[in-house]
């Protein structure tokens, strides 16, 4: 099948919508939306997020070395977008959105109380990459709302209802239905 080159771009499907929580220099809770991120290690469990140096969250992370990642549900797409378009230097984003900053149990960083999944992270290392710095954090704890846990004790993505970002179209999308069982459907092709 023919492919059309569109050049080097920040294109990857899907981009997660991650809300990075930190405390600012004055101790005020701050949060920003980031889409350049994902799991980067199983042992230790770690996540990486890439931020531009001009962001307040960048300064907060360098100073405090601890952060949270809150995963919003589709109910909060407006608030999550707001966290990405307003600077924490001039605005108390939690007050403006009416969302609740909750101090992490394992780290000195706030998370968004209304969002169903939270990762508490301690900075392991940073990597300079062009106009971004990648912050790699060890996941010290994951908190999940009781309402999104299934009978098997595991979080259910259809109850969490996270959403994704399309960097080419600058739009948010919902997830669809389960497609197949991982590490199983491919077994059909084994010979």
From TrEMBL:
Report if keyword Flavoprotein is assigned: yes
Q: Please list the residue ranges annotated as the Flavin reductase like domain.
A: 10-165
Cofactor(s) listed: FMN
According to the UniProt record, what class of enzyme is this? oxidoreductase
List the keywords (alphabetical).
Answer: Flavoprotein, Oxidoreductase
The signal peptide here is none
Q: What is its EC number?
A: 1.5.1.-
Q: Which domain of life does the UniProt lineage start with?
A: Archaea
- Which molecular-function annotation in GO is an example for this chain? oxidoreductase activity
Classification via InterPro entries: Flavin_Rdtase-like_dom, Flavoredoxin, Split_barrel_FMN-bd
Gene3D superfamilies per UniProt = Electron Transport, Fmn-binding Protein, Chain A
Give the protein family.
Belongs to the flavoredoxin family.
Q: In its UniProt entry, what is this protein called? A: Flavin reductase family protein
Q: Which organism is it from?
A: Methanoculleus palmolei
Upper classification of the organism: Archaea, Methanobacteriati, Methanobacteriota, Stenosarchaea group, Methanomicrobia
């Amino acid at each position: 099948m023919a492919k059309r080159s569109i050049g080097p771009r920040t294109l990857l499907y899907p981009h997660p919508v991650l809300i990075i929580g930190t405390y600012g220099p004055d101790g005020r809770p701050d949060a920003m939306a980031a889409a350049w991120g994902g799991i980067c290690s199983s042992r230790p469990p770690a996540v990486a997020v890439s931020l531009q140096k001009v962001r307040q969250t960048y300064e907060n992370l360098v100073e405090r070395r601890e952060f949270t990642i809150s995963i919003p549900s589709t109910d909060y797409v407006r608030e999550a977008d707001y966290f990405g378009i307003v600077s924490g230097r001039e605005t108390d984003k939690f007050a403006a959105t009416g969302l609740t900053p909750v101090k992490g149990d394992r780290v000195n960083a706030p998370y968004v109380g209304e969002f169903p999944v939270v990762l508490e992270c301690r900075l392991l290392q940073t990597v300079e990459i062009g106009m971004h710095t990648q912050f790699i954090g060890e996941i010290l704890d994951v908190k999940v709302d009781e309402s999104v846990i299934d009978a098997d004790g595991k979080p259910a993505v259809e109850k969490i209802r996270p959403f994704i970002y399309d960097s080419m179209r600058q739009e948010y999308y919902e997830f669809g239905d389960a497609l197949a069982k991982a590490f199983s459907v491919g077994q059909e092709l084994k010979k």
